[in-house]
Specification:
- A seven-stranded parallel sheet has the order 4-5-3-7-9-10-11, with helices on both faces.
- Helix 3 runs parallel beside helix 6 and helix 4 packs parallel to helix 5.
- The protein has eight helices and 15 strands.
- With 300 residues, it is an alpha/beta fold.
- The protein is globular and about 50 Å long.
- It is 27% helix and 22% strand.
- It has one domain: Peptidase S8/S53 domain (Rossmann fold), CATH 3.40.50.200.
Length: 300
């Protein structure tokens, strides 16, 4: 199938070389209350698939949490991330608590990284479909997709999405960064659509909007892992989406430790919205959805 999917356009704010020292807790994690719930959950035993540009599987902040890597693009680099985007998303979700670099939302989450977008950031429907099917086979709990396209994809992709939902997998996807209507696959009913906000709880100017816009997370100037063992600050709904995925991973791990059943997407969606902080006009709106996730309310 033709190249139709691409990274949710993102801004590289700054790039930093490998660093050592205390784990840095970025502003986005503090904003949603992640450090306050780590005594209850760090994402242990939750498996998250990241469909992206691959991953830097030698990165010191990622290598222990990465459980599987696969390439569906035919890249000469295999599953190795030469773009940087996939490693950044992986770090936001599950960078390790190892005393160096930075820390992810859910630092004990198991990461399953599928390279479905090429080294230039584009990909075909077939790669995305294969990535979803692989995630189903790996029995992941959650799929994070910081990618999208403006045109409605073929039915085969929706069939794969529905198969993942039927398998009990929660899916989150970026709304997109073109300041227009929500992209696919975030438009699917089975997928939770995530948009981006800045440090002052303002809607990011690039963040897509519409009635399918469901929930927000920090997505401006976000620090995370990058290619070649480095770190970078990026902005985009691409960053808000893994932050949401990591938040859900914390919640699922919390439920598993309590012996509770992982909810279906609809039930989880209801819980997320009930645990969010309303922004913008009162109630749900096209620009802020139901507001920003708050982990202290979610894990109360």
């Amino acid at each position: 199938m033709k190249q139709a999917f691409k990274l949710a356009n993102h801004e590289v704010v700054s790039v930093h070389p490998s660093s050592a020292g205390d784990d840095l807790i970025d502003w986005g994690l503090n904003d949603i209350g992640a450090p306050n719930v780590w005594p209850k959950s760090t994402g242990l035993d939750v498996r998250v698939a990241i469909l992206d540009t691959g991953v830097d599987f030698h990165h010191p902040d990622l290598k222990e949490n990465i459980k599987a890597v696969i390439d569906f693009t035919g890249s000469s680099y295999g599953g190795r991330d030469r773009q940087g985007h996939g490693s950044h998303c992986a770090g936001i979700i599950g960078a390790e608590d190892n005393g160096q670099g930075m820390i992810g939302v859910a630092p004990q989450t198991e990461l399953y990284c599928a390279k479905v977008l090429s080294d230039n950031g584009s990909g075909g429907f077939d790669s995305i479909i294969k990535g979803i099917r692989w995630a189903i086979d790996k029995k992941v709990h959650l799929i994070s997709m910081s990618l999208g396209c403006a045109m409605e994809p073929p039915q085969e992709l929706h069939d794969a999405i529905k198969a993942a939902a039927a398998a009990g997998i929660i899916m989150v996807a970026a709304t997109g960064n073109e300041n227009h209507y929500v992209d696919w696959p975030a438009m699917y009913d089975e997928v939770i659509a995530v948009s981006a906000m800045g440090r002052n709880h303002e809607r990011a100017s690039f963040s897509n909007y519409g009635l399918k816009n469901e929930i927000m997370a920090p997505g401006v100037d976000i620090l995370s892992c990058y290619k070649d063992g480095g770190y970078a600050r990026l902005s985009g709904t691409s960053m808000a989406t893994p932050l949401m995925a990591g938040s859900i991973a914390l919640y699922l791990s919390y439920l598993l430790r309590r012996g509770e059943v992982i909810p279906a997407t609809d039930a989880l969606h209801t819980k997320l919205l009930a645990s969010s902080i309303d922004l913008g006009a009162p109630g749900k709106d096209a620009y802020f959805g139901d507001g920003v996730i708050n982990l202290e309310k979610l894990l109360a």
